[in-house]
Amino acid sequence: MAASSSSLAVVVVAAAVALVAGGGAAVAQLCEEYYDCTCPDAYDIVRRVLIDAHRSDARIFASLIRLHFHDCFVQGCDASLLLDSVPGMPSEKTSPPNNNSARGFPVVDDVKAALEDACPGVVSCADILALAAEISVELVIFINFIYYYHGNFIIIINVLRVTL
């Protein structure tokens, strides 16, 4: 019994050491400059499409933030929420919790099409959801910086690099 518990302890310690040693090599750092060389206009393209979408759908920013949340909620931010169902394999997009609830998919498709025109095969769908959510937050914050002051609307321009 003592031999098996010491063997188990050795295995556990070896696994922990392997995780720590191997984990350091596999750690990736996120950076805002990731697409600066491969698709330098990615941020501006996504931003432009979102602003255009907002003209016809005032809720789109909240919808895109929610899409990103639901994509990341289950097993990480992998854009699996964007996959369509196929016979015998239902998708997250049409699962009961998301069906007729998650929205904004056509805007994500528009962003993907615009990015593919500018830099084919470069920007991942997961990054599109992340960029769309980030830019949506910035645009919502900007819109909320419109003040009503002494009977006049005062519009603050260039808050968070945004000009509508």
From TrEMBL:
The active site is at 70 (proton acceptor). Residues 1-22 form the signal peptide. The keyword Signal applies. The keyword DNA damage does not apply. PROSITE patterns: PEROXIDASE_4. Residues 29-164 form the Plant heme peroxidase family profile domain. Disulfide bonds join 39-119, 72-77. Keywords: Calcium, Disulfide bond, Heme, Hydrogen peroxide, Iron, Metal-binding, Oxidoreductase, Peroxidase, Signal. It catalyses: 2 a phenolic donor + H2O2 = 2 a phenolic radical donor + 2 H2O. One of its GO terms (biological process) is response to oxidative stress. GO terms for molecular function: heme binding; lactoperoxidase activity; metal ion binding. Ca(2+) binds at residues 71, 74, 76, 78, 80, 92. InterPro entries: Haem_peroxidase, Haem_peroxidase_sf, Peroxidase_pln. Binds 2 calcium ions per subunit. Transmembrane segments: none annotated. Its cofactor is Ca(2+); heme b. The record marks 66 as: Transition state stabilizer. Belongs to the peroxidase family. This is Plant heme peroxidase family profile domain-containing protein. It comes from Oryza glumipatula.
